[in-house]
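Researcher: Please generate the 3D structure of the following complex. Treat every line as part of one assembly.
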Amino acid sequence: MHAKKIFVRDLRDDDSKIDLQMELVAGKDGLGKEITVGDINRPGLGLAGFFDFFAYDRIQIFGLGETAFMRRLSAEQKREVFEKFFSFEVLCCVFTHNEHPDEMFVEFANRYRVPTFVTRHRTTRFISLLTHVVEEFFSPLVVMHGTLVDVFGVGVLLMGKSGVGKSETALELIERGHRLVADDMVEVRKIDESLLMGNGSEIIRHHMEIRGLGIINVRDIFGIRSIRNRKRIEMVVLLEEWAEGREYDRLGIDEKRYTILDLDVPFITVPVRPGRNIPIIIETAALNQRLKKMGVFSARELDGRIQNWMRMEGERSND
Amino acid sequence: MIEREVLVRSDAGVHARPAMMFVREAMKYPCEVFIIKDNVEANGKSIMSVLGLAITSGSRLIVRARGENEESAVAKLVSLIENDFKN
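Model: Done. Output below.
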């Protein structure tokens, strides 16, 4: 488990499902600054001249109150406040309600390399969205060496030694209409105590290496319907070369678990050997997983039926 | 487990061809091979994984190997990077 470095520019460039609608208006040179604390600060007190405990290293949110206050200051007072405000190493500023900062603010922000954004969101709304995004940035992360595919809406993480056929299996799944999230390298984040989210490294997104073909772009070949950017991980499938004498699960009554970042995910091992149709096994496993989530457990139900039948047979022969 | 730090000096960074050279070399060893950049670990035997690290000139990497022949694997792979992927 490790944390990835987060930079101010990530706030703007993040392409997860939440759009913070941030537009950069000043301080472009500071976009490479690192965000070390995921908290926010309302700089109202500072603007009024009180800079004790000023949390300059957090994201500064200027709401309607702050902008209205600044409008009432004379140019001289404003200059004095800004001199003081920017003398701290302010991380970055965001103006909500689409309120643009005035020229003097922009000038200061550029000079002190403090990225300044304007968002169309309301303040409360923006803060709650931002908290969500930032929490995700700071969530525990692990890189798994596997391939993540969305199979019938179930996020399936294929694992196994290199050369066992993860990419080929994924390719066949894509061909059958399922969607690739990431090949070979999956960034997994624990978003909260029940949710693991997986996505690929941005730079190689939706590319695959197929031995004998080289690098292919899945999106270009199979189209937009064959990919997605992120997916919740709901199942881990380990592909393993078929070993004579090894016991494989024949009933599926006991559920096995694979632990990622302290969270347990349903886990199956699928033995691979030439001629075995792995993609259809994975499709079936995904559907079976969906059934289980809805409370239908085929293996246990069959076992229950058989036990029932045997009990009734027993009673009948006693009559 | 053996690991060593190495600085990438080649101007173009680790693009497709250098990545292939690295992976091809790594595949010659039976041990597991990893490259770590900024705490992110990539499988040294997978081209996509290595490319995914976006290794630029000036990147500091850790080359790590675990298993049979780990010492010679790390030595060979580090020298490959130090020699700008010229064999």
